[in-house]
Design brief:
single chain, 335 residues, alpha/beta, Rossmann fold, UDP-galactose 4-epimerase, domain 1, seven-stranded parallel sheet, two-stranded parallel ribbon, 13 strands, 42% helix, 15% strand, binds ligand G4F
Length: 335
């Protein structure tokens, strides 16, 4: 039986990846933060249904000894490093902590693996944010990086660290350059979930408008459940290589609004208001990925279309509100 370690297991991608690895017969271990103030029911809501089948280990991405300790206790075949401060807007608000967590966290994981288990295969969650002010479209593995946020810069550093461990120490270390990927498990701060949760709130009479920033930004949005399968495939290859994972389609935030509101028989123009506070100091205007290498070499394919993704997210939020007791509804809806 293969044993895998996932950092960020309680997040959207970590939860889907844990399900996928369990379905393949893996023993799954996950690193979780020790956060005294957060309610565990809420923190672990995405992995609640897996709790008796996974091993959770407390550690901090900011503490080398805590990570070293976990890696010294068990022998892992594969390590998926997903933990990060992943909200781009927050990285402008606090670039220092984003850099500390994202760059040092990656470095600590690589250094501890090199020290204790250099044969463990390592996956780094790279990002299409690394392309930033894009030099060409669509973007592929050879497209130069030009990050536009502290988050993007931290991901370029993680990508470079991962490649350097591969080249310097002959370790099997790869980066997935994943374009935006969403699902009903997406955090409420990201634009897709902010839109679908507010659509549900409006339908339920709990919200009256949706305040957004740049509606013209274009993103290549796929489904997280499809994307975690590519992560796993990347660690099963004869040689370590980096891969772009994307749908090859791009849509504006406005398109997403139109479709999501339309799914609930609403017209987004009646509810969406532009609010400068949600605009970023530097924007990534256009992302569209070319995943030919992943399709060709990994045999990776998608199961969800853009429309199915949006439908599933809107339905998930409508159903969740229907099932909530009245007094909790206000809290769950982010307007
Ligand atoms: O949903 P977003 O916050 O995602 P963003 O910045 O594209 O980053 C996501 O995808 C990356 C992969 O490319 C990941 F690496 C990263 O961790 C994250 O998962 O914003 C999408 C777009 C942006 O152009 C933003 O300016 O939506 C625009 N937007 C407009 N109004 C808004 C809002 N974004 C948010 N979060 N909130 C708004 O009100």
């Amino acid at each position: 039986m293969k044993r895998a370690l996932i950092t960020g297991i309680s997040g959207q991608d970590g939860s889907y990846l844990a399900e996928h690895l369990l379905s393949l017969g893996y023993e799954v271990h996950g690193i979780v933060r020790r956060v005294a103030l957060e309610d565990p029911t809420r923190r672990f809501s995405r992995i609640d249904h897996l709790r008796d089948r996974i091993n959770l280990q407390p550690a901090s991405m900011e503490s080398y000894p805590s990570l070293f300790n976990i890696i010294s206790k068990h022998k892992f075949d594969e390590c998926y490093h997903l933990a990060a401060q992943s909200f781009v807007a927050e990285s402008f608000a606090d670039g220092f902590s984003t850099m500390n967590t994202n760059i040092n966290g990656t470095h600590y994981m690589l250094a501890a693996l090199r020290e204790l288990q250099p044969e463990c295969r390592f996956y780094f969650a790279g990002s299409s944010e690394m392309f930033g002010k894009v030099r060409e479209s669509p973007q592929n593995e050879a497209t130069p990086f030009h990050p536009r946020s502290p988050y993007g810069i931290s991901k370029v550093a993680g990508f470079d660290l991962t490649r350097n461990y591969r080249e310097a120490y002959d370790m099997y270390c790869v980066s997935g350059i994943l374009f935006n990927h969403e699902s009903p498990r997406r955090g409420y701060e990201f634009v897709t979930r902010k839109i679908t949760s507010t659509v549900a709130g409006i339908k339920a009479g709990l919200a009256g408008e949706l305040r957004l920033g740049n509606l013209e930004a274009k993103r290549d949005w796929g489904h997280a459940e499809d994307y975690v399968k590519a992560m796993h495939l990347m660690l099963q290859q004869p040689e370590p290589e980096d891969y772009v994972v994307a749908t090859g389609e791009t849509h504006t935030v406005r398109d997403f609004c139109e479709l999501a509101f339309g799914k609930a028989n609403l017209d987004y123009r009646d509810f969406v208001k532009i609010d400068e506070q949600f605009c970023r100091p530097a924007e990534v205007d256009l992302l569209i990925g070319d995943a030919s290498r992943a399709r060709r070499s990994l045999g990776w394919k998608m199961n969800y279309t853009f429309e199915e993704l949006v439908s599933q997210m809107v339905k998930g939020d409508l159903d969740a509100l229907d099932n909530l007791p009245n007094k909790q509804r206000q809290i769950e809806t982010i307007a």
